[in-house]
Design goal:
FAD/NAD(P)-binding domain, 7-stranded mixed β-sheet, 60s Ribosomal Protein L30, Chain: A, 32% helix, alpha/beta, 4 domains, globular, 21 helices, 5-stranded parallel β-sheet, 723 residues
Length: 723
């Protein structure tokens, strides 16, 4: 059976609660033919229901994080970590802050809201809006640490006396403890107007219990460093000032031409906007048929209807209506592990309500954290001998983790004839071939790899950086590049969109490196693969054969991206770890190469065979040995823990086997990372001892984060690793 081609682009703008639940449901039953994309500035999104508990110290930060990286992998979606800045409805494209636009056939908006108050003088400089939640949580933790260190007083001013403001004020007072001074500032004559009289009375009683001061009829007129000024000139102290008194959608929505209500996207009973190709849900949506206050309960209950209607729109089906409940049970935490309930006017209060709220919140988080396994289909009953062994115990990785093992590769290349042309100065074995080019030398290399991310733009940036690594390792200046692209089954429109993204990202990387992307070749195949052939120019190419005893070994990037990418495939790597690693992989090495090249006796880039494999190759080419300080080798955050948990690239066993008898190393997860296949890895240079201080200083000044990891020694080629 032929694979079903992708024909429609569904783009989810924002990682709000409705979209998070949609991703989970989509992963259980994806719609064939749809490429699903999620756009969000961060790899995680905070769950608002547990924020007061986090502020109060009851939950760690990780407990309220929706991991969009894991959800996207579960759903088979590509996650674009960027901020939407607009929608070009005429061309069907979402505009982004940091990259080229993304095309859509159908889009949904769930970007949430912000609580900033741009009209209040000084707010942007001296206050913290409670939304977006991630930034608020970061700044709150920094404040708590400063109070504990004695560098800031425990004073908090909360602008806004609604339910959110009072709930957070109680949480702040509980967390800061005795001696804290927390004030709620409300412009209206009365606070907590959204609650019934019974619940309101109980909340006011809890404010008195924790010493939280309430000021009503006190509109804030300005925010100063350490204080909020209210009408009449009185200043309320607040080393931490938070704003809850406003709810605003993103400013860019005003430029979309969509029908808006108070800045929010107006939707009908099917959650569809005034544009049939755009839906909206969560706080950013205004339900014209049934207006409701902004509350997470509506976003959660919109999710299945949103999924059903997006599916219907993509398949030509009939849309179904969403009818929100008229009221909902409000469970409001009160600082300590107690809560107040508000529904039907009943004044319920106590620890049992907090436990109930805690169960509800944890149940929601379990829905998006505990993703059901999606096992691969079993092998047929009868297969040829060796099939199970060839498939391996783990799925094939992408990037350099999909390379042939070193032993098989070297055996296959052994029969390759030596170059016969006089202008071909080197053959296989170094990072790039060297050709005579007038008085200079031209180097040429090629790299081609299986996709390791669903996002073609990110893939192209990293693969282009990876391909340039061989040029930089030879001490050459990049010159020109050709692309080789294999596109998976798609409609002609999606092929064009995908190739446009790839070429835009790659051209940006090559242009920044001083090279031109001059063309290439495309083909259609089973899955997305991408490669580049790159040339460079150098007067004196640097090979791997010049290392000398006494040289220092300098590495310019951490290792461990292979295990992180493998764990991400298994939905086991934390989203923030994956996002930080991909960003580091895309960091170019041109500046580092320019600093190292005038001094290095030998240089290579660390890629598929791991740091140990490439270092041993350099030692064998130079006829020397080396000692490596394992503790000095930089490792990507999260990589060692994932290795200890049993994760690893599908190429890892072959890399370890290839160095049998050529390396002496401890047997532990950190040492295993020396064999971890790297994609777009760092440069590894052998630098004479008299130049080490100068080189390390220059690299650090250029922001390259270098590490001196070992020393070249005399003796037969062998790598000794010291813990």
């Amino acid at each position: 059976m032929h694979p079903i081609p992708l024909t429609q682009d569904l783009v989810l703008i924002g990682g709000g609660h409705a979209h998070a639940l949609l991703l989970r449901m989509w992963g259980m039953n994806p719609l064939p033919g749809v490429r699903l994309t999620v756009i969000n500035p961060l790899p995680t999104a905070a769950y608002s229901g547990m924020l007061p508990g986090h502020v109060a110290g009851h939950y760690p930060r990780a407990a309220l994080q929706l991991d969009l990286v894991r959800l996207a992998r579960h759903a088979g979606a590509r996650l674009i970590l960027d901020r939407a800045t607009g929608i070009d409805r005429a061309t069907g494209r979402v505009l982004l802050a940091g990259r080229s636009p993304v095309a859509y056939d159908l889009a949904s908006i769930d970007t949430g809201i912000t609580a900033d108050m741009p009209a209040l003088p000084g707010f942007a400089d001296h206050a913290v809006p409670v939304k977006p939640l991630d930034d608020f949580a970061d700044r709150w933790e920094a404040f708590v640490q400063a109070v504990a260190a004695g560098t800031l007083p425990p004073t908090v001013a909360v602008i806004g006396g609604g339910v959110a403001g009072v709930e957070l004020a109680l949480a702040c007072a509980h967390r800061l403890g005795k001696g804290a001074q927390v004030t709620v500032i409300e412009a209206a004559p009365q606070a907590l107007t959204a609650l019934g009289p019974g619940a309101r009375g109980r909340m006011l009683r809890h404010m008195g219990r924790l010493g939280v001061r309430l000021m009503t009829g006190a509109p804030a007129v300005a925010v100063h460093p350490g204080a909020v000024e209210i009408a009449g000139g009185l200043r309320i102290p607040g080393a931490f000032i938070l704003g809850t008194g406003a709810t605003r959608p993103a400013d860019w929505l005003a430029g979309t031409g969509l029908d808006l209500t108070g800045g929010f996207v107006t939707v009908d009973e099917t959650l569809r906007s005034s544009d049939p190709a755009i839906f909206a849900a969560g706080d950013v949506a205004h339900m014209a048929h049934a207006p409701r206050p902004k509350a997470g309960v509506y976003a959660v209950r919109q999710a299945p209807v949103l999924l059903a209607n997006l599916t219907a729109a993509l398949t030509g089906g009939r849309l179904r209506p969403y009818q929100p409940q008229r009221d909902y049970l409000k469970l409001i935490s009160t600082g300590d592990r107690t809560a107040v309930a508000d529904k039907w006017g009943l004044p319920l209060d106590g620890a049992w309500l907090w436990r109930w709220k805690d169960r509800i919140d944890r149940r929601f988080m379990a829905r998006v954290h505990d993703l059901p396994p999606m096992p691969a289909p079993p092998l047929p009953r009868l297969v040829a001998l060796g099939v199970a062994e060839a498939m391996g115990a783990k799925p094939l990785c992408g990037g350099c983790g999909a390379k042939m093992g070193a032993a098989s590769l070297h055996a296959a290349l052994a029969a390759l004839p030596t170059p016969r042309r006089a202008d071909v100065l080197s053959g296989p074995g170094d990072d790039a071939a060297v050709l005579a080019h007038g008085d200079d030398r031209q180097v040429i290399t090629t790299d081609h790899m299986r996709a390791f991310t669903q996002d073609p733009f990110t893939l192209a940036r990293i693969v282009a950086t990876h391909a340039l690594g061989d040029i930089w390792a030879m001490g050459a200046a990049p010159q020109a590049a050709l692309a080789q692209v294999v596109l998976p089954p798609m409609s002609a429109a999606l092929h064009e969109r995908t190739l446009t993204e790839i070429m835009a990202a790659a051209a940006e990387v090559f242009r920044a490196a001083g090279a031109d992307l001059v063309g290439g070749h495309t083909s259609l195949g089973a899955e997305l693969t991408l490669g580049f052939t790159v040339t460079g120019l150098a007067q004196r190419p640097i090979g791997q054969s010049g290392a000398r005893p006494g040289d220092a070994l300098i590495l310019t990037k951490p290792i461990g991206c292979g295990v992180i990418l493998a764990a991400e495939m298994a939905r086991a790597a934390p989203g923030a770890v994956v996002a930080d690693t991909l960003a580091a992989m895309a960091r170019p090495q041109g500046t580092a190469a320019a600093i190292l090249a005038p001094h290095a006796h030998a240089m290579t880039d660390v890629t598929g065979f791991g740091l140990a494999g490439h270092l041993v190759g350099l030692l064998e080419a130079s006829g020397v040995a080396a000692t490596l300080d394992l503790a000095a080798v930089p490792v990507y955050p999260g990589a060692e823990a994932l290795a200890a948990a049993g994760h690893g690239s599908s190429l890892l066993p072959a890399n370890i086997a290839a160095l049998a008898g050529r390396i002496s190393a401890p047997q532990d997860p950190r040492a295993d990372l020396l064999h971890d296949p790297q994609t777009a890895g760092g440069l590894l240079a052998a630098v004479p001892p008299e130049a080490v201080a100068q080189v390390l200083g220059a690299l650090a000044a250029a922001g390259c984060s270098p590490a001196r990891i070992g020393t070249v020694t005399a003796g037969p080629p062998h790598l000794t690793v010291r813990a």
